[in-house]
Design goal:
7 helices, 2 domains, two-stranded antiparallel sheet, alpha/beta, Lysozyme-like
């Protein structure tokens, strides 16, 4: 997962700053052929805009592909509207996947993979059960949002359903624990070793206060032997989350 932060501080939802304790995740897609997140980072970062989500997945401003956080994850977003039973805006982290023309399998696959990895990190960080991951279309049927079809108009074109998605997130969560100290990951024709930090004292010095805070809060925990199995990416996600929620600076 490639993760950056670009909070929409001028957006009316950010300014409102209503807090929540995340209990689920809503997956949206944008509904227009625009794969660059910068289009939304610009157009949504205005005080007159009355919609906002916690993140976007697509091409980032630097040209790489990944996830950009746009709201603190403990803020209520304005993403799915109201339904007959209420709104998941009050309880769910929500993100948009930037659509293309819905015909490119390569683009779909990188979006899908990034979304799975992002949801897996959120589930681990906030203790969210994968059964509480839903798309906007499902939110509507459940009675907690407005009538939309995303992402059921897109995923099935490439053989995926939300049931598949939830199962893949569950697999990604379980796959986070590995007995090996280093795991080779192919990147092009090269192999890159992924380092695991099993103990707080083994983590990079700058990250130790954040890791300890996450342990104290129960955000992370060790395995049966007490090993943390943290990677650099996982540590950075913890740091960003603790800063974005105002728990640490």
């Amino acid at each position: 997962m490639n993760f950056i932060q670009n909070l929409l501080t001028e957006n009316k939802c950010y300014i409102a700053g209503a807090k929540m304790a995340p209990r689920g995740i809503v997956v949206h897609s944008t509904g227009v052929n625009q794969t660059k997140t910068s289009a939304y980072l610009t157009s949504w970062n205005k005080s007159e805009v009355t919609k906002c989500v916690h993140a976007f997945i697509g091409y980032l401003p630097d040209g790489t592909f990944g996830t950009v956080q746009t709201l603190p994850f403990n803020y209520k977003c304005w993403g799915c509207g109201n339904g007959s039973k209420g709104s998941y805006n009050n309880s769910h982290i929500q993100f948009e996947i930037c659509e293309d023309n819905l015909t490119d399998s390569k683009y779909f696959n990188i979006c899908y993979k990034e979304a799975v990895e992002f949801c897996a990190e959120l589930c681990k960080t906030y203790g969210i059960d994968t059964k509480n991951i839903v798309c906007h279309a499902e939110v509507y049927r459940l009675g907690y949002g407005t009538g939309h079809t995303d992402v059921e108009h897109w995923f099935p074109k490439f053989g995926k359903t939300m049931e598949n998605f939830r199962a893949d997130v569950e697999m990604a969560i379980k796959g986070d624990t590995s007995p090996a100290e280093e795991s080779p990951v192919e990147e092009g024709d090269e192999e890159v070793a992924v380092t695991y930090y099993d103990w707080t004292t083994a983590c990079p010095d700058w990250s130790v206060p954040y890791v300890q805070k996450a342990l104290d809060m129960g955000i992370i925990k060790g395995d049966e032997q007490g090993r943390l199995r943290l990677t650099d990416d996982r540590i950075w996600t913890l740091v960003v989350t603790l800063r974005a929620t105002g728990i640490m600076k």
